[in-house]
Every structure is written in C-alpha cells, then in structure tokens.
Amino acid sequence: MKKIKIIVSGLFILFLSGGMPAQSTNPPDPPGDHGSGGDQPPGGSAPLGSGMLVLVGLGAAYGGKKVFELRNQDDNE
Q: In terms of pLDDT, which residue wins out, 12 or 59?
C-alpha cells in the first residue's frame, strides 16, 4: 500500500509540473544598437554541433562497454 502511495504521489507531481511554464512572458527587445548588423534569430548562435557529437560518441562508448561487460559475464557463467 505504501508503494502505491509513493507511485501515485510521484505521478501527481510529475503531471502538475508539466503545466508550469518556466518563463511566462517574452523577454524585452534588445537596445537599438546591440552590436550586430541585424536582428538575431531566437536562440542566438551557440555552436551545438560539435558538443552534441562528443556526447553521442561518449554515450556510444559507454553503451559498448556495458555490452562488452555483459557478454563477458555470460561467458564466465
């Protein structure tokens, strides 16, 4: 019974937090001369491509290590 209460309360909190916006209004416009030739697109120009490639590579290496360990564990039994 206690386990069911924990699961139900966790789901309740999860569903309630989904409707709460982190930022309810749009940010103010930048000043007239903000250092660029024109308006910048939303989100700026952060270089995410190489960082994502590194994270995917590390995730693949970690997954490969886990598969290798599981196969060695099966061979030892």
A: 59
Rounded CA-CA distance 19/34 in Å is 34
Q: Is the dihedral of CA 60, 62, 64, 66 positive or negative?
A: negative
- Tell me the residue type at 69: E
Work out the mean pLDDT of the chain and round it to a whole number.
76
Q: How far apart are CA 51 and CA 9, in angstroms?
A: 37
Single pTM value for the model: 0.39
22: phi then psi, degrees, rounded to nearest 5 = -75, -30
Rg over CA atoms, the chain = 24
